[in-house]
Amino acid sequence: MLRLLVVDNTRKHGGAFLSLLDIIENFRSRGVNVTLIASQTTPEYLDRVKTDRFIYMNFYRREFDRTPEPSSKERNTLHGLWKRTARFGPTIECFREISRLYKVTSRLSFDLIYLNNSASSQFSCILFGALKNIPIVVHTRGFEEIGFCQRFISRFVKKYIAISRAVERNLVRGGIPAEKISQIYNPFNIANYLNKEPERFALKSEFPATKLLGHFGRLIPWKGVFELVQSLAVDLRHNKTWHLLLVGETANLAPEYKSRIECLIEQEGIEENVHFLGMRADYLEIMSGCDVVIHHSIEPEPLGRVAIEAFAVRTPVIASHLGGPSEVVEDDVDGRLFDPYSTQSFRSALKDAINNRKRYTLNGQKKFLDMFGASQFDALFSIVQENAMHTDRDRSASLSFTKPDS
Fold first, then answer.
1. Longest CA pairwise span in the chain (Å)
2. So what's the pLDDT on residue 177?
3. What is the per-residue pLDDT for 104?
4. Cα–Cα distance between 85 and 56 in angstroms, integer?
5. Number of alpha carbons in the 13 Å side-chain half-sphere of residue 70
């Protein structure tokens, strides 16, 4: 039996967490014994995660390549001294975390360590694996700022899994060896996404002509919700049967962002047409009941999970052309791509999605079945199995302090 240690430090209910649920479920169906170490203990998290063993551990969040640097004017000040000493914080916490990892896994043995989300914020887990001589796979789900420390620890990582070509290119540009990277799109447990019963909205039953436009994602600036409301304001004012549903939680890092959106809604006089639904467990049913799903990120998105889920539930999707969504959505075939900084581009894409619903949804669901199902699980499991089953586990890549190539 393959024994897997999964470490998840996402701390939020986003795409990385949802993808991990599908992966753990699939791996356990293949007979893999999964031990999960995570930073979350919320009821929602614990209710949804099904593993053989769960261990709580709070990880330090500051990344090694992001410690503050004092300016020339600050170097001889107390504030400058604080900045210089702050860089030791990650180092101290790293050794504490390695000690904790030894303690909580002292009676366990593993064939592979699987890190969910990023390497730069899980430095201690990689060093722990190197010290224990356990192979490490990192499932990279975002655009990391790769500095010296990231390049250094890459020698202890057997394989990086990039969730899109955009993420793969970012890793290569940062200096991660290309031969260590495999690009695999997020796999989905297809049975959990098909045949969702659409949410029966009162708005639809009272006014059949109602158009429901859905945005699914956390309320953070780079997701572009503020710009989405700006682009839709004219249409929402002139079409009283049009409604925008904002499904997703307010992020702790940007608590004021929702207030900015609410002020804009009030200024535009569209309070009756925009609805904050918060984080919803039934978000797929809501998505299925929408007329169009909108993905409006104003910065490159690593993948664009929402677009794939829209394919699954047969709802037309329009997506920002920045980053991963341009790999997922084929323009005017299974959805539309648009420039998030151009209202004209956005409105044209929205009009096409409404007018071509049948064609886009049929093509989108076919792509979902072909590209994001069993074949992706097989590819992912093959990497895990291949790297876990090495018997030579020599120390050639273990703790060596030769400076890596920059």
1. 70
2. 95
3. 92
4. 29
5. 16
Is 139 or 67 the better-scoring residue by pLDDT?
139
Q: Are 115 and 138 within 8 A, CB to CB? A: yes
Burial class of residue 52 (count of CB atoms within 10 Å of its CB; 0-12, 13-18, 19+): middle
**Residue 219 tokens, joined:** 């309320």
- The answer to whether 398 touches 153, Cβ cutoff 8 Å, is no
Where in the chain are the domains? Answer: 3-189+373-388, 191-371
The superfamily (CATH) of domain 3-189+373-388 is: Glycogen Phosphorylase B; (3.40.50.2000)
CATH architecture of 191-371: 3-Layer(aba) Sandwich (3.40)
| Vertex 220: Cα angle to 217 and 223 (nearest 5) | 60
Q: What is the pTM of this model?
A: 0.86
Tell me which H or E stretch contains 99: helix 88-104
- 372 burial (CB, 10 Å; 0-12 / 13-18 / 19+) is buried
Q: Rounded distance, CA 196 to CA 314, Å? A: 9
C-alpha closest to that of 303 among 360, 229, 372, 228: 372
DSSP 261-315: HHHHHHHHT-TTTEEEEES-TTHHHHHHH-SEEEE--SS-BSS-HHHHHHHHTT-
State the residue for tokens 């796979």: 137
CA 96 to CA 106: how far, in whole Å?
15
Dist. CA 266–CA 77, nearest whole Å = 45
Distance in angstroms (rounded) separating the CA atoms of residues 211 and 202: 12
- 3 state SS of 138: strand
pLDDT in the model for residue 42 = 75
The amino acid at 53: R
Alpha carbon dihedral 156, 162, 163, 164, in 10-degree steps, equals 170
